[in-house]
């Protein structure tokens, strides 16, 4: 395998972005669910939606950034 293939870099970027985005989304979703007094089990759904959405968006952008950076050699 090459020293560090482009696919491996992009995959790592998506994974790290998803993990960071998920953590931030969980914290933010919990804060908003408590702040806006979301009732009962809807809190779980709201926190889950915020977590998945944040993880997907941040993972997408970090993966795209890794792909753009992949072609550059310094």
UniProtKB/TrEMBL annotation:
GO terms for biological process: protein import into mitochondrial matrix; protein insertion into mitochondrial inner membrane. Keywords: Membrane, Transmembrane, Transmembrane helix. The keyword Plastid does not apply. One of its GO terms (cellular component) is TIM23 mitochondrial import inner membrane translocase complex. Its main location: membrane. Belongs to the MGR2 family. This is Reactive oxygen species modulator 1. The chain crosses the membrane at residues 12-31, 51-70. It comes from the Eukaryota. InterPro entries: Romo1/Mgr2. It is found in: Membrane.
């Amino acid at each position: 395998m090459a020293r560090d293939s482009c696919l491996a870099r992009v995959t790592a970027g998506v994974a790290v972005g998803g993990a960071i985005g998920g953590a931030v989304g969980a914290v933010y979703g919990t804060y908003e669910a408590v702040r806006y007094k979301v009732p009962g089990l809807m809190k779980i759904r709201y926190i889950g939606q915020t977590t998945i959405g944040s993880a997907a968006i941040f993972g997408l952008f970090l993966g795209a950034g890794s792909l753009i950076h992949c072609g550059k050699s310094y």
